[in-house]
Protein: DUF2391 domain-containing protein
Amino acid sequence: MPERELDQLFDELEALEAAVDEDARERVAAALDAAEDVEEEVAYLEDRGAFGNVIRGYDRADVAETFLGSLLFGVPMAVEGGTTEVGAFFATHPAFLLGTVAATLAVVYGVLYVADFQDVRVKDPLFGFVPRRFVGVVAVSLSTAVVLLTAWGRIDWADPAVALGACVAAFFPMAIGAALGDILPGS
Structure:
């Protein structure tokens, strides 16, 4: 089935899902899941390669890929003394700290959903609109930054503003690595 026809089918099913009662909505959701399975099988049979996969959901394997990508980009930040210097700068310039957080979130969203490395689909978003993959990538990379910098003695929480700043400085590349580590393998 051509991709355009599948996209049209998904659009029609999603419109129907929004327009019907609760019982019918469950049947439409089941039809959507079946259509997604068909689409995955067609994509598999077409052997579209590593950069042409359709990615849905976010499970334990994705968390592991996210963590590995975060570490790959984050270890250099953990051993580099400049990370603490940036943290000290952020401690006295909170606008730059917030700007870096905003830029990090924008870049992660862009890598996952805009750059089109892979066809990343949002499935079962949190609160009906927040993609689980986005939340997972952000949470894993931020947690990795905090734990790694703390465990390796690179930050001292006696000065929380500097420690937070250093974590945000490390979070930026770690989040990019986490996003790439998650979607590039595909699946």
User: Anything to note?
Assistant: The CA atoms of residues 87 and 164 lie 7 Å apart. The helical segments are 3-19, 22-46, 60-79, 82-92, 94-114, 132-151, 160-183. The longest helix spans residues 22-46. Strands lie at 54-55, 119-120.
